[in-house]
Amino acid sequence: MQSMLSKPQLLSWITCDGAHIDPTTGKHTLLGVFSNTRVRQFPFVYPYMVWFITVTDCSQGSHTMKISMGLDAARMQPLIERKFDSESPLQRINLINEIANLPFPEPGEYDINIEIDDELLLATSFFISN
């Protein structure tokens, strides 16, 4: 019997100020969870944020996650490209993505795409206003 390849599934995407992993238990603590932000003036550079992502159903082996962002689909810019390993499709994999000095040239609803192995898992948005 031939095994079927798993299709990666996104379980969570959380924007926050920071993430801590307890060295004893391995538990994750997320600090300052938020879904949009307001600033005084544009252009604005967000100094530091974390995108905490949990995926599952990734076949055993190496995978590539890509995150891109833009004011619309025609202006998407790559932000993150990173490799990660999966031991089994049953494994839940937490990926902590630290983003420093993220520019926002103008207010608006910024589109965000998350892909695993060039397959779109999430198309969402992040709203920034003044």
Would you kindly provide a written description of the structure presented here, covering whatever features stand out?
The chain has 130 residues and is an all-beta fold. It has one domain (9-129): Immunoglobulin-like. It contains no helices and ten strands. The chain has strands at residues 9-16, 18-21, 28-31, 36-38, 44-56, 61-70, 77-86, 93-104, 108-116, 119-129. The protein has a five-stranded mixed beta sheet with strand order 4-10-9-6-7, with no helix packed on it. The protein starts with 8 loop residues before the first strand and ends with a strand.
Quickly list its features.
130 residues; mainly beta; three-stranded antiparallel sheet
Extract low-pLDDT stretches. Answer: none
CA radius of gyration is 16 Å
Bin the helical content: under 10%
CATH superfamily: Immunoglobulins
Shape by Cα distribution:
globular
CATH level-3 fold name? Immunoglobulin-like
In brief:
With 130 residues, this protein is mostly beta strands. The chain has no helices and 10 strands.
Topology summary:
Layout: E1 9-16, E2 18-21, E3 28-31, E4 36-38, E5 44-56, E6 61-70, E7 77-86, E8 93-104, E9 108-116, E10 119-129
